Amino acid sequence: MNRALRVLPLTAVALMSACTSAAPAAAPAPTPTPTVLPACTKLPDPVLPHSAGELTEQQSGVYCLPRGQRVDVFLTAARSSDLWSQVQASGSILAPTNTGVMTAPIGVTPAMFVGTTDGTSVLTSSAPSGKTWKVTIVVKG
Amino acid sequence: MLRSALVAGSAAALAVAGLAIAAPAGASELAPHHMNAHAAKTAATATGGNLAYGGGNIVTAPTVYYVYWGSQWGTSSVTNDPSGEVALQQSFFSHAYGSGDTFFTSQTQYCQGVATGTTQCNGAGTPVGHPASNPLGGTWLDSSAKAPTRPSTAQIAAEAVKAATHFGISGDNVQVVVDLPHGVVPSGFKTQYCAWHDHTTAGNGADLPYTNMPYITDAGSGCGANFVATGSSGVNGADEGITIVGGHEYAETLTDPAPSSGWVDSTGAETGDKCAWISSGQGASSIISLNGANFAVQSLWSNNFGGGAGGCVTSYTSASNQH
After folding, report:
1. At what angle do helices B2-25 and A3-26 cross, to 10 degrees?
2. How many CB atoms lie within 10 A of CB A27?
3. What's the half-sphere exposure (Cβ side, CA atoms, 13 Å) at A131?
4. Contact A71, A137 (CB under 8 A)
5. For chain A, what are the domain ranges?
């Protein structure tokens, strides 16, 4: 058996081995790194139907929102010239939803969000006087 | 050659793996959130854009029913109504029909039976109904027991279902207004909301739109008292919130009886929400005449105002004649 013939089976085995080991690396999605979500507090009870809970300008910190459920926000201005701005949610785990079901009182900035995927989002608002409001929402299924 | 094939295969595998890793990082985020402030303001806030059809029902033949919940109202007739809310509510809706009502007509531009996402019906589909005669279908004093001093959302819904059974009604063309008596303050009233509408299921399994309407004047200026200058209209400033909030919720039920499957904007706001508490400029709340009687109202959103740009209006006879 010449040298070429002796090497060929080994090369073929090596190739098959390489192919079989390469294939799994191409097909499946990479193993996600487990996300450690921060500890959170239960939301205060809601005042509207279909809601998991509500937040006002009195709250701060980290609150839990079950995935697929809604959190309502009501920020009340201390005076008419110091209205809270529209509530912003960071990232994409919270989706804005219908606030139109209610008539909000004058001076109240409402917002509603549904938790769409697990993760954290920061809700923020500010007032002309320089006051700021921030709450972290932890969405988990 | 075989070595080359091996290297090429491995490179391809790594490239595929690389794409698989890269894809999530490139996934798009939702657009930034915008929301109306709901505070007294000087012009319509256009955030959220026009209303778009969500694929659900609208109200094609509206009829309104009132239940006065609780013996606090009185035992055999309404006797405890210090602001005269019952009479004013009944008068408001009893005048909201026909050609003498050019206020709620702005909502007839919205329709059902068109593609989801539609913003201009242009005569397609079935429009929101505008009653040819008095749309007040009935009233009922449910004095069988005292209403809870702080009723829950579930209790309010249950009272709506009870009233629907009393009236023998159901479906999205009816709306039950649950009137809470003076002094009854459900959680969130005055501070988080003035009123709200929702839907539940009637005893026969059909949909049932309803409104939680607390005793609005108990909230004072926060829910509309003296919001509009009355001039010589004869309107009582202290009672303005009754019709401002009442009209807001009625219009939103017309266009979105089963929230939020009807007409809402990209932020989820409904027709009244987009125009609440405007104090001056286009769409300012005002005193209007309905068949000869004057009432304070807020404006409602009109998609076809301004050539399709949308805006808040208090008078509508056609797409080209509205303000």
Report:
1. 10
2. 11
3. 15
4. yes
5. 41-140
Chain B, 135 to 194: residues with Cβ < 8 Å from chain A are 153, 157, 186-188, 190-194
Task: Measure CB to CB from residue A111 to each of B35, B224, B248 and give the nearest one.
Answer: B35
**Residue B152 · residue B184 · CB < 8 Å:** no
- To which H or E segment does residue A121 belong? strand A119-126
Cβ contact A99–B269 (<8 Å): yes
Q: Quick one: closest CA in A to B256, which residue?
A: A101
Chain A residues with CB under 8 Å of B110 CB are none
Distance CA(B213)–CA(B319), nearest Å, equals 32
Q: Please indicate whether residue A7 or residue A103 has the higher confidence score (pLDDT).
A: A103
A53 close to A44: Cβ distance less than 8 angstroms: yes
Q: Judge contact between A94 and A69, C-beta under 8 A.
A: no
What CA–CA distance (Å, rounded) separates B280 from B283?
Answer: 7
B226 interfaces chain A, CB cutoff of 8 Å: no
Domain A41-140, CATH among 1.10.3720.10, 2.70.70.10, 2.60.40.1860, 2.40.330.10: 2.60.40.1860
E strands of chain B, at which residues?
Answer: 52-53, 63-69, 111-112, 126-127, 136-142, 174-179, 195-201, 207-213, 263-264, 286-290, 293-297, 300-302, 311-313, 316-318, 321-322
Residue B312 has pLDDT above 70, yes or no: yes
Q: Which A residues, 35 through 54, put their C-beta within 8 Å of a C-beta on chain B?
A: 45-50, 54
pLDDT per residue as tens digits for the range B10-56: 333 333 333 222 222 222 222 222 222 234 666 544 567 999 999 99
ipTM for this model = 0.82
Cα–chain center distance at B230: 25
**Using an 8 Å Cβ cutoff, are A127 and A108 in contact?**
no
A105–B268: do the CB atoms touch at under 8 Å?
Answer: no
Nearest Cα of chain B lies from the Cα of A40 at a distance, in angstroms, of 23
